[in-house]
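Hey,
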Amino acid sequence: MAFYFPIMLIIGSNVLYHICAKSVPSQMNPMVSLMITYLVAGSLTLFMFFLMPQIFTMDKKLDITLVGQIKQANWAPYILGFVIVGLELGNILMYRIGWNISLGSLVCNISLAVLLLAIGVLFYKEVISTSQIFGIGLCIAGLIFINR
């Protein structure tokens, strides 16, 4: 169960995410929506950090105080903040201009999967199989058919 929990969390959260992104009132400035979103997210993560500080830290020997953990940060969390705002805004705008909830996410996720496969091979030396190459071709064909 522990092996599949993160996958189930991602799937469940993504379903709710897209329902929420599509449900942001069209008369609401998306920046205000994102501000509320991140205030809630920041409050929740701070609460969870203090409630269970050691659960999410892989190396139990590290300083698990908030300041100690902030000192562990590299460039990634800071850039991730910019990236997440782009993702959130892109999804809200995607639905505002008329993408269906059934297709918008599908087009984005298939495109993302194909790009990440290429990035995995080129930059992380991952190996892909013949069946994965065939799958990539089917994904690209699917994108062509979906967007007709």
